[in-house]
Amino acid sequence: MKIATFNVNGIKTRLQHLLQWLDQEQPDVACLQELKALDEGFPAAEIRAAGYQAIWKGQRSWNGVAILARGTEPVEVRRELPGDPGDDHSRYIEAAVNGVVIACLYLPNGNPQPGPKFDYKLAWFDRLLQHARTLADCGHPVVMAGDYNVVPTDFDIYNPKSWRKDALLQPESRERYAQLLEQGWTDALRHQYPDEPIYTFWDYFRQHWQRNAGLRIDHLLLNQQAAPGLRAAGVDTWVRDLEKASDHAPTWVELELQAAPARKRPSAMAARSRRS
């Protein structure tokens, strides 16, 4: 089962890129962020024609999340992150697909910091930590996928010095990400590539893509029921090389899961990262 996350940075602008990627890479599940479109502006017909069913939660001009499933309909579980009924940002959606719980999230950026945007980021992260503990212990395979807007360590960025004051690298952000891992979640991409620089985001400015000056901020976290099934992970960097591309590249994992939650120890894992 191939599960991917992709911050499209505007689904209307990047629709053809999305459809090309779906056709070429054939993920079973795709979590999308930054739709930047209202619910009625979501291209459901085009996505159905590509062989995918979808649930989504849009918002004008920014935010917006969706879960796409190939050949089946995702069963919606919730449309918001618990803990703050007054939060109207479209940043979280959750569904079940073929026995796997999929949490699609777009964590707040938090810039500029310090300030109210960073405070909101940390408060949202605290809510995620609370809900993630529930998901971790639910007894089913769970994948929390999305744009976390956190660079976990200095190894996950081309040059930490130039970003040291950014909200993505602040100790408070990194500490909360580490707390997720302490709950038992596996950072799939880093697990597969423990010693290799690997990025998922390249800023539009100063030729960051051309210089491979990237950051790793798009993550797929696996709970203890999903992690033993991890077989591969990678980044579809060719998508970032398209004309007028999103500044993110799709990031994915391949899982081999039994019908019931797997209890066996992790086995040997194949690693691959394709570029067309």
From TrEMBL:
Q: Which domain of life is it from?
A: Bacteria
Q: Where is the site labelled Transition state stabilizer?
A: N149
What does the cofactor field's note say?
Probably binds two magnesium or manganese ions per subunit.
Which residues participate in Mg(2+) binding? N7, E34, D147, N149, D247, H248
* PROSITE patterns noted in UniProt: AP_NUCLEASE_F1_4
Name the active site residues: Y106, D147, H248
Named from the GO MF annotations, one term is:
metal ion binding
Cell division as a keyword?
no
Q: In this chain's numbering, which residues are marked as the site (Important for catalytic activity)?
A: D218
Under the heading InterPro entries, the entry gives: AP_endonuc_1 (IPR004808), Endo/exonu/phosph_ase_sf (IPR036691), Endo/exonuclease/phosphatase (IPR005135), ExoIII-like (IPR037493)
A single Gene Ontology biological process assigned to it is: DNA repair
Q: Endonuclease/exonuclease/phosphatase domain location, by residue? A: 4-248
Q: Which family does it belong to?
A: Belongs to the DNA repair enzymes AP/ExoA family.
| Full protein name | Exodeoxyribonuclease III
Instruction: Give the organism the record lists.
Output: Ramlibacter agri
